[in-house]
Amino acid sequence: MTAGVDTGGRAPGRPRSAHVDEAIIEAVLGLLAEGGSVETLSIEAIAARAGVGKATIYRRWSGKEALLVDAIASLKGPPPEPLGESVREDLIRLLSVGPKKPDERTAQIMSCLVPEVQRSPERYRLYQGLVEPRREVMRQVLRQGISSGELRADLDVEVAVAALTAPVLIQRMLRWHPGLDDESLPARVVDTLLAGLAH
Amino acid sequence: MTAGVDTGGRAPGRPRSAHVDEAIIEAVLGLLAEGGSVETLSIEAIAARAGVGKATIYRRWSGKEALLVDAIASLKGPPPEPLGESVREDLIRLLSVGPKKPDERTAQIMSCLVPEVQRSPERYRLYQGLVEPRREVMRQVLRQGISSGELRADLDVEVAVAALTAPVLIQRMLRWHPGLDDESLPARVVDTLLAGLAH
Description:
The structure is a homodimer.
Chain A: H1 18-33, H2 43-50, H3 54-60, H4 64-76, H5 87-96, H6 104-119, H7 121-148, H8 157-174, H9 185-195
Domain HTH tetR-type (chains A, B): 18-79
DNA-binding region (chains A, B): 42-61
Pfam families (chains A, B): TetR_C_11, TetR_N
């Protein structure tokens, strides 16, 4: 879950404990869910909540920012892999990953991070680093669909990625429309967009 | 700009000054843009920044929450009116309203409000009160388009509203994709969705 982001000074040969990693990530998410801002989030508070020492955290992460990226990545889940069955199935699959069940806690945490990301160019860069690989997976599915003839040759791929992703995102993050059912939304979005609005 | 939300105890017959209203709203937006949270936003601070007395604010608004709703409404601009020319033109028009130019200040303020809205059922209700009339205008355009035969008869109207609105919203609020041009996005979204993704 935290692979590739641990840039901390972990002693060579010391085995990582997945359990401890998870407890630390969970502590970050718990503090954010309770309304803590990134500014007020301290390694001390995270350590106390996870029941570990500060040194244990610093052995695993270079600091708060790196830890935060892993915490968000854990909410988002691993980058999805398309199955290559059909464009429709792949798109629904891509839009259905993320928190297994969009819950209030996730909405709370994600929404807390929005202003933090806007406030700092460095965080915006980290955020783009999380989002871009996911956009790229969807682009590949769309390009594949163009090649196979399932999709229009003149498709505006970048806008299609945005139009597919955004409704699910705002629903998960903002609870934008209380009348939309979260569970069925990915399939409804994909079907509506594939068919198009025009007669 | 503040019509219909002023529930404060304004003395009968006392004329409203649009200039003072604007200065107060501008003070709220300025404080939010500088990273102030709704919790830390005080009538004292707003009054000081606007150069008015607290009583002046309380004559115009019942309190902080009502003032906040008007401040957000002023960012969003007046609810748009479709021209009834064509579905395409009307949809582009509806998606192009809001801040004339999506700027960093608006992104900052809007993103600051996201967690505040999630945190309080009362604010969520106020937020829905702002969003729902805008959704309804777009629904009407879509239903009109179904009637006129421009749009498919079996259109999933609720999902179409979400799919049209969401890409513009996340771009404005999150600067979701640095590669997308904000100016041309509404037209690109509308054209992509009208035509559909499928071949």
